[in-house]
Specification:
Layout: E1 7-13, H1 18-21, H2 35-48, E2 55-58, H3 62-75, E3 79-81, H4 98-104, H5 106-113, H6 127-144, E4 149-154, H7 156-167, E5 184-190, E6 193-201, H8 203-211
């Protein structure tokens, strides 16, 4: 039996969108990258042009595809679209700000803010459902592409539950880690388990500011 075969993952959040800047719940709805987001993905593409990876995968939502497109334009990779990488379905909250949700759906918003991982947003998903989708998706990708390095463009919600899975952090615990737009998060899959190597790398954004 040979040594274990590692799969390496660059898990990347999409660039900033108009709705990100307005703190609107996006979920499965689309909001285009804003001016800041376009600058972020340009810097991200330049950064990944100097990195070796085998496959470029993306959520099928517009903001992720727009981000993956900026990478592909610099690296020449084809984009493999993977709908399981979508953001959490935020149901009736989608397109609204927290204040609007609190005004229209006060009881549902209170349940959402309680951080109960089993609370299902009407017409949407619970955090646990998102967690299970995330864990199954990334495990299957790691096994199907064993020995490869995968660049995966996804969403803050997906990355949040991936981090919790890898670090054994409870779903209901307050988030104490960053979810930067275009942040690069590095993980390794070995012997059926994920290992976190680096989280929240935004060196490309800091370099872009230095070059400005």
């Amino acid at each position: 039996m040979g040594p274990p075969v590692d799969t390496h993952l660059l898990a990347i959040r999409h660039g900033e969108t108009e709705w990100n800047s307005e703190s609107r719940f996006q979920g499965h709805l689309n909001s285009v990258l804003n001016e800041e987001g376009l600058a972020q993905v340009k810097a991200l593409g330049a950064r990944l042009a100097s990195e070796r990876f085998d496959l470029l995968l993306s959520s099928d939502l517009g903001r992720a595809l727009q981000t993956a497109g900026a990478i592909a334009a610099r690296t020449g990779h084809e984009i493999v679209v993977e709908p399981r990488l979508r953001e959490r379905n935020m149901g009736i909250f989608q397109g609204l700000t927290p204040a609007e949700v609190q005004s229209r759906y006060p009881d549902e918003y209170a349940r959402f803010k309680s951080h109960d991982p089993d609370y299902v947003i009407p017409e949407g998903e619970s955090m646990r459902q998102l967690f299970e989708r995330c864990v199954a998706c990334f495990a299957e990708l790691a096994e199907r592409h064993a020995g490869m390095t995968l660049a995966v463009v996804t969403h803050g919600g997906m990355l949040a539950v991936l981090y919790r899975h890898v670090t054994a952090m409870p779903l209901a615990a307050p988030r104490n880690f960053p979810l930067h737009n275009t942040g690069v998060n590095r993980l390794r899959h070995r012997l059926g388990a994920w290992e976190l190597q680096h989280w929240g790398d935004i060196d490309h954004l800091e370099r872009a500011l230095d070059d400005y």
